[in-house]
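Long-time lurker, first post. I've been practising inverse folding by hand and with some scripts of my own, and I keep getting stuck on stretches where the structure tokens seem ambiguous. Below is the full token string for one chain I'm working on. Before anyone asks, I'm not after the true native sequence, just a reasonable design that respects the backbone. If someone could post their per-position residues I'd love to compare against what I wrote down in my notebook.
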């Protein structure tokens, strides 16, 4: 089968032929119909500081993790998934026996393996997937749309980490997940949605999905504009989806006392924040968001998917063999979501 590998340190990838994976008794073989490029894949492709520390020991391997496809083979122990089912993948492969797994927190399993990070991923024509991680899709959903449910799930987890109805929300980072968060906040009845990014094209997507206030953080006085937009009180909810030091600091500084901060972004390096003034004295609630709750988030995502019209977010489609074109589009910020079809 055709597959896309990260074989060595440094920017880039390698496309090569490899054997179709042989499945275990508790796995299904998925014929990949669509797989999309995520920000994590950009980190891996570009080989930044995070990728060097997180991925280095796993080379060589097939990367990619957002997927939709059809089950073509099932192991003898597989339950609730059948040959012919259309599926997407929950990418956190949990151990099922650690403390977190046994107390309903599989998404932060002590021994978790991430599809396309720790084990071979979805940039291939076929994928071996544990049957517990196969989410069965409605066959009416096109594969190219179903492939972006995983990032939508990240947004669902982040937005509904707390109350949004009637709240003023700042969302830093108008990548695909941030834009999805804008749409979800609008659906959930947020009073005002303030979208921030350094790229005008991405801010336009935020506007299309329902943002009320757009702030270009590359040129604006971010703190002043947020405080002006909130009558000097600050936002009720701060969602960090940029993975940027400035976003974290500005978001916390403009969060009202007693507010809620939900942090999804992956930051390239550690940095200092004003814990005393922006967290302790304000009495805020701050949570880290890791992936999707298994599988509560998926049920919410299934219900919300028809309302989101995610086809608006998918700007480019390429053949899997043209994956370099997809990365090039995203590096130049000429697109939002890129879907690859084997």
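-- Answer (accepted) --
I ran through it position by position. Result:
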């Amino acid at each position: 089968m055709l597959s896309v590998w990260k074989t060595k340190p440094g920017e880039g990838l390698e496309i090569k032929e490899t054997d179709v994976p042989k499945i275990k008794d508790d796995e299904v073989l998925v014929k990949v119909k669509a797989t999309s490029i995520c920000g994590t894949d950009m980190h891996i492709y570009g080989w930044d500081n995070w990728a060097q520390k997180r991925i280095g020991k796993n080379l060589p391997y097939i990367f990619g993790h957002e997927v939709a496809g059809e089950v073509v083979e099932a192991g003898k122990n597989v339950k609730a998934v059948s040959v012919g089912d259309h599926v997407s993948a929950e990418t956190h492969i949990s151990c099922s026996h650690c403390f977190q797994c046994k107390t309903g927190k599989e998404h932060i399993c002590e021994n978790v393996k991430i599809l396309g990070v720790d084990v071979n991923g979805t940039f291939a024509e076929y994928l071996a997937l544990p049957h517990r991680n196969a989410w069965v899709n409605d066959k009416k959903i096109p594969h190219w749309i179903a492939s972006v449910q995983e990032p939508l799930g990240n947004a669902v987890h982040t937005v509904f980490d707390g109350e949004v109805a009637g709240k003023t929300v700042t969302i830093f980072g108008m990548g695909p997940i941030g834009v999805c968060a804008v749409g979800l906040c609008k659906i959930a009845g947020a009073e005002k949605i303030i979208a921030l990014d350094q790229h005008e094209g991405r801010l336009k997507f935020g506007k299309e999905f329902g943002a009320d206030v757009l702030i270009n953080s590359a040129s604006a006085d971010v703190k002043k504009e947020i405080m002006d937009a909130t009558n000097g009180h600050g936002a009720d909810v701060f969602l960090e989806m940029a993975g940027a030091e400035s976003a974290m600091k500005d978001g916390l500084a403009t969060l009202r006392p007693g507010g809620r901060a939900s942090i999804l972004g992956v930051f390239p390096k550690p940095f200092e924040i004003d814990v005393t003034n922006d967290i302790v004295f304000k009495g805020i609630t701050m949570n880290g968001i890791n992936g999707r709750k298994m599988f509560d988030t998926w049920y919410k995502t299934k219900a919300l998917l028809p309302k989101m019209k995610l086809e608006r977010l998918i700007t480019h489609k390429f053949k899997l063999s043209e994956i370099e074109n997809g990365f090039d589009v995203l590096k130049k910020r000429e697109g939002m979501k890129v879907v690859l079809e084997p």
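A couple of notes from the structure itself: The radius of gyration is 20 Å. The mean pLDDT is 96. Happy to go over any region you disagree with.
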